[in-house]
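Quick review question:
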C-alpha cells in the first residue's frame, strides 16, 4: 500500500512510522509512506498557505490553491483510492473503517491546521473525512499517524502471526479478553487455571466469556450497536 500525507509540519511525522510493526511493514515492502510539505505548493515565496477567513473571526484558513495544486499533482501520479481529510468534524474512526482502508492500494491524507481547510477543497476533492475522537488537536498530523498505524498493522502480511489481528479488541465488537504470561504465580496471584489446562475448546470458551463480560462492564455501547 502507498500512503501519502500532506502536511505543514512534516517533522511531526518523522518518527511514528520508523519503529516496530510500521517499520516491519515498510521493510517487507508492504507499506510505503511519503510525507509531503504543503509549503512546496505555497502561493508566494514566503511559503504562504493560509489566509484570514471571509466573514471575519479569529483563526486562519488553509487556502484552496496550495492544497488543490498539491492534490492534483500527487493524484496524477498516484491515483488515490481515497483522499482523506483529518478533521474533528469527520466520521469517528473505528476498527471497521481501519479494516476497509487496509485493503486499499493508495491513500492521501490531508492534515488540517488552524480553522481548517477552505470548504471548496472539501467539496471538490475530499472523499472521506475522519476524526479520531471528540476533541480538538492542534493539527491533523497526530490523528493521521493514529489512522495510518491502525491501517498499516492489519495490511495482509504485516503481522507475523497472521491470525492475531483477528482477535484484537473491536474486531467483532468485543473488547479483547485478559492475557497472562509467565510466571504462573506472582506474589500469590495465580493465572486462571483454565489457561493452563491445555484444553483449547475450554480456553476459547473462557476467552469469549471474559471478552463479553469486559465489554458489558466497560463498553456496553458496543453490544447495543
Ligand atoms: N484535527 C484536529 N483534531 C482532530 C481530531 N480529533 N481528529 C482528526 N483530526 C483532527
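Suggested answer, residue by residue:
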Amino acid at each position: 500500500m502507498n500512503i501519502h500525507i500532506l502536511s505543514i509540519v512534516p517533522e511531526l511525522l518523522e518518527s511514528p512510522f520508523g519503529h516496530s510493526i510500521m517499520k516491519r511493514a515498510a521493510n517487507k515492502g508492504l507499506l510505503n509512506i511519503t510525507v509531503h510539505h504543503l509549503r512546496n505548493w505555497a502561493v508566494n515565496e514566503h511559503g504562504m498557505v493560509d489566509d484570514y477567513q471571509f466573514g471575519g473571526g479569529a483563526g486562519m484558513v488553509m487556502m484552496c490553491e496550495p492544497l488543490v495544486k498539491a492534490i492534483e499533482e500527487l493524484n496524477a501520479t498516484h491515483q488515490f483510492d481515497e483522499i482523506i481529510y483529518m478533521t474533528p468534524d469527520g466520521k469517528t474512526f473505528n476498527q471497521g473503517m481501519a479494516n476497509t482502508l487496509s485493503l486499499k492500494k493508495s491513500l492521501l491524507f490531508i492534515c488540517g491546521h488552524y480553522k481548517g481547510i477552505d470548504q471548496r477543497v472539501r467539496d471538490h476533492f475530499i472523499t472521506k473525512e475522519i476524526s479520531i475522537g471528540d476533541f480538538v488537536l492542534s493539527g491533523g498530523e497526530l490523528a493521521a499517524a493514529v489512522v495510518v498505524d491502525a491501517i498499516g498493522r492489519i495490511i495482509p502480511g504485516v503481522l507475523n502471526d497472521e491470525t492475531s489481528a483477528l482477535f484484537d479488541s473491536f474486531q467483532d465488537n468485543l473488547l479483547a479478553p485478559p492475557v497472562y504470561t509467565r510466571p504462573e504465580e506472582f506474589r500469590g496471584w495465580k493465572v486462571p487455571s483454565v489457561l493452563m489446562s491445555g484444553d483449547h475448546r475450554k480456553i476459547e470458551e473462557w476467552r469469549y466469556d471474559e471478552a463479553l463480560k469486559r465489554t458489558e462492564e466497560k463498553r456496553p455501547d458496543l453490544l447495543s450497536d
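Why it works: The chain has a mean pLDDT of 95. The radius of gyration is 22 Å.
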